[in-house]
Amino acid sequence: MAELLAVVGMMVLMMAFVGPVIRGLKGSRDTIDSAYEIGGILEQARTFAMANNTYTWVGFFEEDGVKPAVRGNVAATSGTGRVVACIFTAKDGLRYTPGVTPVPTQLSGSVGNLAVVGKIRLFEGMHLVTTAANRTIAPASMLGPLIIANTNGVEVVSTGTGSLPKAVYPLLATTPNYTFAKILEFNPLGEVNTLDRAVPGEPPLQWVGIGLQRANGNIPEAKPAPNIFIEGLTGRVHIFKP
Questions:
Q1: I need a labelling partner for 183 at 20 to 30 A (CA). Which of 49, 61, 95, 216 fits?
Q2: For 146-165, how does the pLDDT look when each residue is reduced to its tens digit (9 = 90+)?
Q3: What DSSP state is assigned to residue 217?
């Protein structure tokens, strides 16, 4: 009996040490899986735009991860801990006209001309950051190129400010669950750009960056995490993980 109690005690002691390691490995795996899933969403948007000679937009929103995901006619509360992504497209292949006054409130002129591609996706326990932020946590050489704002690239988390069109989900809801302001646009050539730069004669930047970090509830965890890069001229997605 004493021997059995000793063995049980040893097992409990080992789990006390091993448990945090296992949880850490799971959190790292979840973050990497989410990076690849978001990469798949971006690839889907690019492929759809090129195959259908139209425009697609990928909207990103981050809400409070402690609060339940919204349902019904309730607007989500922006915050930290749950990343939401959705693909929109123009039914007639046309986009909004940039530079007009007032600024269009919808990506393609009217909500009736928009459609959702696939399903809206929620990524629990995820937090959007700049790719530069992740480079300060893990070896920078493992996490892709250094983005210099408006020189060789742009960070998705830094977009969505100012008077730019938005996208809402559900499209015809009286009170939409989500209003997307951080939006990437894929044109029929597969090029990707942010809305503030997606104007005639303005070439895409070299890179668009998305940094991901794990969040515990609504508290970010500053641990090594992956970066997602999209080539401006081709729309191809690259994922760098520590």
A1: 216
A2: 999 878 999 999 988 777 88
A3: T
Rounded-to-integer distance, Cα 232 and Cα 193, Å: 6
Neighbours of 239 (CB within 10 A): 16
Distance between CA atoms of residues 123 and 3, nearest Å: 46
Which residues make Cβ contacts (< 8 Å) with residue 170, sequence separation at least 6?
176, 177
The whole-number pLDDT of residue 16 equals 43
Average pLDDT for residues 169-181, to the nearest whole number? 91
Assess whether pLDDT exceeds 60 at residue 217.
Answer: yes
pLDDT, the chain, mean: 84
Closest CA to 123 of 81, 88, 152, 64: 81
Half-sphere exposure for 170 (CA within 13 Å, toward CB): 9
